[in-house]
Amino acid sequence: MMPTVDPASVRQLVCNLASPRQEIETAFVAVGARLTEGAALLNTLSKVFEALPGTLGGQDVEEATARLNSVASRAEELAATFSQEKTDLARLVDVVAAANAPISDLKRAVKMMGIVSVNARVTAAGIVGDIDDFDVFTTDIATLSDSAGKTIQDFAQVYRQLTTEVDRAASQRARFETAHAQTLSHLGASLAATLEALGAQRTTALESSAQTGRVSRQIVGRIGSAVMALQVGDATRQRIEHVETSLSTLADLLDGQEVSGHVFAEDDRPAALAAIANLQQTQLSQTAASFAQELEQAQADLSALAADAGTIMDRSRDFGGDERGKSSAIASLSAQLRTAVTILADFEAERAKLEIVASAVQATVRTLLEHVVAVQEIEANMRLVSLNAAVRCAQLGPRGASLTVIATQLRELTSETVVAAEAAMARLDQSSQLAGSFSAAAAGQGGGKVGELEQQATLALDILSRLDQHMAAALVRLNKDGPKVIRLLQDAASGLAGQSSMAELLDDIALAIAALTRDDVPETPSDGLIEVLASLRKHYTMEAERQAHDRLFPRPASVVQQPANGTAPGDDLDLADFML
User: Fold this and answer.
1) pLDDT, position 390
2) Which residues pair with 318 in a beta bridge?
3) Which pLDDT does position 439 carry in this prediction?
4) Cα–Cα distance for residue pair 383/181, rounded to 1 Å
5) CA 467/CA 55 separation, integer angstroms
């Protein structure tokens, strides 16, 4: 047998074990803290982005899409209406202008009536005496001629106003066409592209959600695996502590102190040294091997976890535009929709102007019609006067021949006046009908609905703006917390990088423990040694320790089958076996 080992050398081994134990504990606690923080942030982020497809596919977005469809279809109809209105307005200008010729004839005929009436007064004054009643030539014709002149003057003035209104409307529409015609024609296509972009955004969101969910499930598995792998740190710490306790017990035993109620004689100490030293060398070697193996798995799990976190960050960014989270497809949709709202508002204003012109045309035509009625009344009175004039001329015989000619001219001019007025009104009636068609088109195709379309577009814009803000906030959070998550998980993985040397150090200390004795484990331990070994076994918290112990020191069958505490084998496993 070897000489008894100095207890101080055994206690030095205890001190040597304290350093790797503390370093392992510190490293794994730090890694666990990073893993916990990173996993919590990652879990929050994944929930945020998994909820986004529900938002994109929710009823609000369906409502916004329906409103956009309505705006797009109505915009296409309005674009077609715009082209037709341009044609109708050009016709209105032509029809109103065409009335100028008969109105000019009307003015000329009335002017000639005035000249003839003057001639009638002069001629009558030269051929009749004071006793003759020729007021028909001296007064009645002049009165009717003046009335006709005033009526036609008013008629011409109202017509000039009508011409001015129609020309102004045509000029305004031309300016509007220059500014918006092309934009209006492309508005429907633009909004259709907007809807397509929204659909693509939703499709991308759903795809990203599926990917995010898959990666999230992987991460959950990785986290569980990493947590289990990190238990090696706590398990190693406990097993080292148990070896330290056992070595301290051995040192006390070798120092002659009482251990488990026994003081070992000097002759009994070598056997106790061989038993405990071999046991602790076995325990520490197995601890080092298990630590090295599970440390490799823990590093792999943490590295994979960090990589998965990077993947979920990249996929989550597909929800928005650029990686900074400052733009998105929905932001682009909102900008296009704002343009659509502006165009619709401009179109509504232009249609309102056209309706005003249409109302003015119809009101003017009604006024002109009143003047035509007046002209017709004047024509009837003038015929009556001309008939009276013819009777007076017949009474004068040859002296009234000149007055007969004048009366005939008046009848002809009166007829021309009525014909010219009716010809002008025929043109103006057409303008009234065209104006009426504008009003009908405004009511049926846009006038009463453009405001509603603008409201629809505005509501859709509000819905999409809120959704865009929700997504922007999610992306901001991603860009804020995402790098932190990846950094935490990478730091957790790198935090175990130097731990492999601890396994080598534990192996070295295990060899030093083995060098304490060259004796084999006693085949028949003394009663005192059995009690010491049983006391050491009670401190074990892991099944691996018990198994290593029992291989060196098999327990009696009666003890295994009927434990003293009445528990089944393995029931004394501590919860610490499964916790960090």
Assistant:
1) 74
2) none
3) 58
4) 55
5) 8
Cβ burial, residue 510 (10 Å; 0-12/13-18/19+)? buried
Structure tokens at 527: 């009663």
Q: 14-37: per-residue pLDDT in tens?
A: 999 999 999 999 988 888 888 888
CB contact burial 532-561 (16+ within 10 A = b; e otherwise):
bbeebbeebbbeebbebbeeebebeeeeee
DSSP 139: I
58: region left, alpha or beta (phi > 0 left; psi from -120 to 50 alpha): beta
Please tell me whether the overall predicted TM-score, pTM, comes out greater than 0.70 for this model. Answer: no
Partners of 259 in the β-ladder: 262
List strand residue ranges (DSSP E) for 356-425, in order.
none
Secondary structure of 43-91 as H, E, C letters: HHHHHHHHHHHHHHCCHHHHHHHHHHHHHHHHHHHHHHHHHHHHHHHHH
- pLDDT of res. 22: 93
Structure tokens at 68: 């956009």
Angle between helices 450-494 and 269-316 (to 10 degrees): 160
Distances in whole angstroms, Cα of residue 32 to Cα of each of 183, 231, 488: 61, 10, 10
Residue 253: half-sphere exposure toward Cβ, Cα within 13 Å: 30
Query: Would you state the pLDDT for residue 573?
Result: 40
Structure tokens at 307: 């990589």
| Predicted pLDDT of residue 577 | 42
| Cα separation, 242 vs 246, whole angstroms | 6
The count of residues in the chain is 580
Q: Structure tokens of 113?
A: 């009536």
* DSSP type of residue 563: -
CA–CA distance, 99 with 359 (Å, rounded to integer): 19
**What are the φ and ψ backbone dihedral angles of 262, each rounded to 5 degrees?**
-130, 145
- Cβ-in-10-Å burial (0-12, 13-18, 19+) of 234 comes to buried
The SS3 assignment for 259 reads: strand
pLDDT of residue 332: 64
Residue spans of the chain under pLDDT 70: 1-4, 52-58, 79, 126, 128-138, 179-185, 187-188, 191, 194, 198, 201-202, 205-206, 208-214, 216-218, 220, 312-338, 340-341, 344, 437-451, 453-454, 556-580
Q: What residue ranges in 321-473 does DSSP mark as E strands?
A: none
Between 59-98 and 100-127, two packed helices, what is the crossing angle to 10 degrees?
Answer: 30
Q: Concatenate the DSSP letters of all residues of 447-459 into one string.
A: TTTHHHHHHHHHH
Cα–Cα distances in angstroms (integers) from residue 468 to residues 69, 320, 329, 473, in the given order? 19, 9, 9, 8
Q: Which residue has the tokens 């590093």?
A: 299
Interatomic CA distance for residues 222 and 42, integer angstroms: 12
Q: Look up residue 562 and give its DSSP letter.
A: S
How far is the C-alpha of 145 from the C-alpha of 518, rounded, in Å?
Answer: 153
